[in-house]
Fold this sequence. Notes:
The protein is 27% helix and 26% strand. By secondary structure, the protein is an alpha+beta fold. The protein folds into two domains: 4-136 and 169-206, Roll (Thiol Ester Dehydrase, Chain A), CATH 3.10.129; 232-337, 2-Layer Sandwich (Nucleotidyltransferase, domain 5). Strands 1, 2, 3, 4, 5 and 6 form a six-stranded antiparallel β-sheet that branches. Strands 11, 12, 13, 14, 15 and 16 form a six-stranded mixed β-sheet that branches. A hairpin with a 4-residue loop joins strand 9 (190-191) and strand 10 (196-197). Helix 1 (12-22) runs antiparallel to helix 4.
Amino acid sequence: MAKTSSTFCFQQLHIDVSRNATDDFNLFHDPHKWHEIRQNPFQGPIVLGFQLESLIEGQLAEHRKNNEDLKCIIEHNLSYSNYQFNFANAVKPGQHVNVEIRPAQFKNNILSNRVIVKADGKLALTGFKKESAQPLFLPAQDFSAFPDLKQHPDRSYISDTGFFLKRKFMNTSNAKNFLCGSFIDQSQYFDELNDKANFPEIFPSSLISCALLGAVDWSRKEKLMGIFNALVVDPDLEWEFIDGSIVKAHQHSSGAACEQETAIGKSVAGNTSKIHMAVDACGLPIHFSVTGGEVHDCKEAPKLVAELPKGDYIVADRGYDSEALRLQIKDKGAVPVIPRKKEFNSGK
């Protein structure tokens, strides 16, 4: 068996076609908005990662057909495709892209091809495509415990699983456009006259990109706290501890126009945020809030305490020395354990 090597040249049109086919709205691929990404190292739009992987899928299909690898796949019932790639550099429009596929290796009932992609002679991507009888990624994942996804709301986390549900509908026209944007002959997958419609493997995966961006947008809408609360299971509430910690923000993290609160403020350390956290007796988080770094612990404490479940004791350091806070804790039925500041001489 011999290795194969082919050369291609992506243009912005290929990128736009693939973006439109997958609903991708990542600014890294946008010819007009890439510069809105602060300190963008690429200084221009780049080819989609899934677009490169689709090109590899097409080239591998040709390679395996020509080298009789399909016989091995059928004979050993290798029904799972596994892609394992590492990106070394981005691919830009106009660069000459070379795809090299090494001869297949069959070991431990896994058929594997090494793939090397270079752009203008520099390494862009390297990795493997492996065919196996069992999935190599999340092999032990039990999806039987999932609720009925048909009844689950779209664009939301599936409780206690860590998975985010985003519904996408596949249609042949988008898949064909995605193939065209990846230099693949669509007739290999679709032929209406012969009632042939085989969606390429990478196409469903390519829809993950907009789903991930949707998940980020979902979290920005303050729904992340709902997931946090759902993951707080059976806390030990004999003792509850509260404290705050400052996190230094990036030098370019503030100043841009934004309608939403960014929780970044000016403090002695510069641009900072402060995480106000409450933990149970085992040190596990039970509630938190984020403010600008200039917000004093005592100012945010009443809001934090108000959200806490009823405990026996609420413990804090001298930074929380406040009679009003002590009364609030007592009103919740808990005992405040807060040392007084040294200059406070009256009372216990």
